[in-house]
Amino acid sequence: MAISRTDYGPVKVVHAQGYLSGLAATELDRYLAELLAGRGPHKLVLDLAAVTEMSSAGLRAIISAAKRARSHKGGDLRLVAPNRRVTEVLELAGLVAVIPIYSTVEEAVASYAAPSTAQP
Fold first, then answer.
1. CA 8 to CA 11: how far, in whole Å?
2. Distance from the CA of 3 to the CA of which of 36, 46, 59, 112 falls in 20 to 30 A?
3. Which CATH number do you get for residue 21?
4. Which residues span the domain enclosing 95?
5. Domains in the chain: how many in total?
């Protein structure tokens, strides 16, 4: 698993590559936990375009990151470009209903500037 990061102002984009399971998922979870430590809000985008497959361990890493990001008002997680196999895993887990998914990094980053439609 290869992990890299690009910052777009206050939005942190994490690029994951490879098979997201077992030790790789633990590595990603640790990386995201360190990135999301401290004061927020944390605006995070997880780019899954280069993730080939994902296990339940990968799901746990994503869920943990979403919880950490959302623990501060204004923080959130967006996912980008999961392939068909990864999307199926996200759908089976019910995450597509609670974590927004975008086609491109640019769309996901721009979504943080869009007015929120959430009710207080």
1. 5
2. 112
3. 3.30.750.24
4. 2-110
5. 1
